[in-house]
TrEMBL record, chain A:
Its main location: membrane. The keyword Cell membrane does not apply. Component of the gamma-secretase complex. One of its GO terms (cellular component) is gamma-secretase complex. This is Gamma-secretase subunit APH-1. It is found in: Membrane. One of its GO terms (biological process) is Notch signaling pathway.
Automatic annotation (TrEMBL), chain B:
It is an enzyme of class 3 (hydrolase). GO terms for molecular function: aspartic endopeptidase activity, intramembrane cleaving. The PAL motif is required for normal active site conformation. This is Presenilin. Residues 1-66, 305-374 are annotated as: Disordered. The chain crosses the membrane at residues 83-101, 134-155, 162-184, 196-214, 226-242, 248-264, 406-426, 432-451. One of its GO terms (biological process) is amyloid-beta formation. It is found in: Cell membrane; Cell projection, Axon; Cytoplasmic granule; Endoplasmic reticulum membrane. Belongs to the peptidase A22A family. The keyword Cell membrane applies. Residues 31-47 have a biased composition (Basic and acidic residues). Its EC number is 3.4.23.-.
Amino acid sequence: MTLAVFFGCTFIAFGPAFGLFIFTIARDPLRIIILIAGAFFWLVSLLLSSLIWFIAVKASDPQDERLQKGLLIFGVMFSVLLQEAFRFLYYKLLRKAIEGLVALSEDGCSPISIQQMAYVAGVGFGLMSGAFSMINLLADALGPGTVGIHGDSQLYFLTSAFMTMVLIFLHTFWGILFFHGCEHRRWWEITAVVIMHLTVSGLVYGAEQAPSQDPEALQDVPIPSHPSPPLPSWRQDRASPSLQYLFSWTGGPWPALVGQALGSICGSQPTSVAETGSLQRPFGSLHKTPQFWGTQLCWPCCELSPS
Amino acid sequence: MSEESEESVPLLPLQQESMASALFNTDQNDNSERRRHDNSERRRNDNAESETNGQPQSNVQQVVEQDEEEDEELTLKYGAKHVIMLFVPVTLCMVVVVATIKSVSFYTRKDGQLIYTPFTEDTETVGQRALNSILNAAIMISVIIVMTILLVVLYKYRCYKVIHGWLIISSLLLLFFFSFIYLGEVFKTYNVAMDYITVALMIWNFGVVGMICIHWKGPLRLQQAYLIMISALMALVFIKYLPEWTAWLILAVISVYDLIAVLCPKGPLRMLVETAQERNETLFPALIYSSTMIWLVNMAEEDPEAQRKSKNSTSDKQAPASRTQNEDAEADDGGFSQEWQQQRDNRIGPIESTPESRAAVQALPSNSQTSEDPEELKLGLGDFIFYSVLVGKASATASGDWNTTLACFVAILIGLCLTLLLLAIFKKALPALPISITFGLVFYFATDNLVQPFMDQLAFHQFYI
């Protein structure tokens, strides 16, 4: 975890998109507005679809695993369809905007074409989708922990980052295709986009699942035990113990403590995140992490004298 | 030392932001009107409409000719460009607030409440809590209303000195005291050892330069930066001292109040804006963020001699002049650097300012507007503060955390965009809070309660939508 993973995953997931943004969108204020409006439309579609899913979940039996799974898949499909519907609505809005721009202009030509708008709208959808998928993961990646310590995949963050990057690109391309199909009344293009979106969203299901909560699997891994150290008083109101990873390289008291710790790591019990149920986020906020990547907090065994 | 918190934040900063929250744009209407005139009738020789510069008509035409190719973009790009010019400071303010909330735990710790919100929210029953928060919000809003009316009354009866003193004291408080506390907490968070002498030096410099920039003259970017910083500080104070339900209620009620105060004919803020327009004065620069050059008109000058002199100096900046032929005036360039002047020339075209043209400027009855740039856009600091309060509270208390913060951020920006669109259509001062805060609140509660569980489940199963 920590900074290397954080920056690596951030750049994998958002690097190309930010490159696109900086080189093609940031110069023109009109494009920035279209980008943010596109993000807004995606957000509204997500809101409505999660409302439907939430109602369905509340109306159903929470104990029935298969039903919940089925409802989730239904939620995903419905969300995809709603996203495409909002893409169509956005297309309509942008068409009207182009007419307005043309009317305001002197020589009857708008400063931005529908193809450019399609591209920017796609990037807007993609950025928002990627941000919503990835940001909480990135924030957790800053903290301490070991990915996959329960025997699950160690590549969870990496795969998420790559998936996010792919999805941002896909949204961009789908935006262009969709608008092109709407412009030229080629309905097969629009259906192709919808089907592709459904396929991609449904594809991941059945692929590598998130780490299991199977108690037998949990018991296979030998877990060393050590007590969690008391926080020194000067860090009482510090946000989180995970900040040590940020500041260990800046010096301060931590190098000495790490040296002490390395000399005495043996037979200690990690504090399991799964047990406490909540992870102290970096930068101070408490967040109920879904216990899916099975991180464990492994504290170096260090004797800290309360000062 | 700064642990025992000030439970009674003085009224002054409150007044500052309450008054400023609704003012949106005072000159925009005239300017966009002029712009539309220029667009539709290109070579109109009517100088009476142009309120912002006093140079001869030929120069206006020259300006218009230069922009002819881009004229078709001028009206909307003018809108688009200025939307971005407001997006950037609003985003910066929010980023500062969110970064502080996430790293400095002082601002999320409960250290009591303000005296304006006396009822506690640690009650046994939900009903009691709701009642307490409603009462708190009611008290806060009535305080804000009373002080706004007081300010309008003072302004109407020309008690400029009182208003000035009030504003100076409140910005002194913000720039020195609150920033000292902020600095102290940041040092504590990162465990930086610091001595009082260095801190005194830093705060002194920061505060004095801030006072000069805000209340007198200064480079535009520096003034904008200071306004953003004091808005962020004020927002952090609100986030710290307002309990949860009270905060959301206050946000909702104040956007309703903003709507009423700016749009109703007898609304205090509307009266303030109209009085200022009647007297051809600009409103208090300490309360308004301006996207272009803003000047403090000496409102308190009653002496005609001094007024003429000050008009001389202000109109020297008003009339866009790159090279003044008058040597005296050149000495008083008002702090404009050469780069700024060249930039202005690039935008508007090299225009000479002669004593004759400036005399003509002063002779024009309607030309005491200090907004020299027709593309100026103003946003009240209260808007900055309440946007940042919303996003800061979202990042502090949401279970969805970054998703909620991001959603509120996008919602506020879209609300601002829509408000600017309405401004372009209606061309008069509009409240900037209602649309943005409504969107922000809707998205906060929706994302926190509906979207976050959905996204959690999706992440659990590694679905990507």
